[in-house]
Amino acid sequence: xxxxxxxxxxxxxxxxxxxxxxxxxxxxxxxxxxxxxxxxxxxxxxxxxxxxxxxxxxxxxxxxxxxxxxxxxxxxxxxxxxxxxxxxxxxxxxxxxxxxxxxxxxxxxxxxxxxxxxxxxxxxxxxxxxxxxxxxxxxxxxxxxxxxxxxxxxxxxxxxxxxxxxxxxxxxxxxxxxxxxxxxxxxxxxxxxxxxxxxxxxxxxxxxxxxxxxxxxxxxxxxxxxxxxxxxxxxxxxxxxxxxxxxxxxxxxxxxxxxxxxxxxxxxxxxxxxxxxxxxxxxxxxxxxxxxxxxxxxxxxxxxxxxxxxxxxxxxxxxxxxxxxxxxxxxxxxxxxxxxxxxxxxxxxxxxxxxxxxxxxxxxxxxxxxxxxxxxxxxxxxxxxxxxxxxxxxxxxxxxxxxx
Length: 404
Fold this sequence. Notes:
Blueprint: H1 2-7, H2 15-32, H3 46-57, H4 66-78, H5 93-105, H6 108-128, H7 134-218, H8 224-251, H9 270-279, E1 283-289, H10 297-318, E2 322-329, E3 333-340, H11 353-358, H12 364-374, E4 378-383, E5 389-396
Parallel strand pairs: 1-2
Antiparallel strand pairs: 2-3, 3-5, 4-5
Helix pairs in contact: 2-3, 3-4, 4-5, 4-6, 5-6, 5-7, 6-7, 7-8, 7-12, 10-12
């Protein structure tokens, strides 16, 4: 049972705690032995030491056998009056500790039955020993109430532990569900990226196949070896097209059988993209540093989609009316930075796209990172010190400006 496991002493740091509980129960029980039946106060007799030692010594049993601990401590309480001692709440301190442990570990019905029996036996032992005065009756009422109060406290602790365990379990399941959902979204995004990249590659190979067929027809003046090489190129590209079509067909859904009717978008369509966001109320400025160069189709598509997704996140979540796109061209890479100033009226201005990626249902940054990684680049995103949010990606460029 989980509640019982929670009561088991842990090695090391908890051993002193167990010793402190036993020592305290022993001291309280011994202190209760200074009162005699004739209401006189004297040093604890030998019987008080025996009762305190036996009842406190039984407390370690409460972790594995709480019923046995309650039985021993209750029996010691019943032996108090025959031993010439006065049954007081201090003398039943070990029984209270054992009753609390019992209520924590057992279900409500069994714990209530055991504690009621313990209280009844303590009272019965005193009643059977002789006549009771009004003062004795008041004292016995308190003695009987102590184990019951301990049971109520133990049951409350059991409920609290069960509640915390349920909260932890819900949190663990929610985390698992979120991880599963994130992996599913990533897989869907990869499939979508694969479709677009395969479409681009298929378009390139189609052009190469057409060029190779033209060359094979008009290049009759070349040696026969060149003709055979060109014929092989035609066959190779045709087979590549078949393979690509089969791959794309597997990637597409059953109701998505048509290929795109136009080439995949690239940075050449950036002005139209900026204009569309302008019509939606987001003012976008574009700046170029360095000499602009043609990009490979896959990289061109990735650059366009990252800018599109970053601006979409700004429009949805940044709470600002403006954004900046900067493209920095170098010899071997292009750096694309999309930033907002975070000066909008909405309270989410400082979080921007980060919240869209972090909460369930928003995986924009995951998709952008997957796109950048697919073409050999990298992407970073985070809050800017001066305010707002920045998405930056480095994408590789082919050597000597060759984009084919």
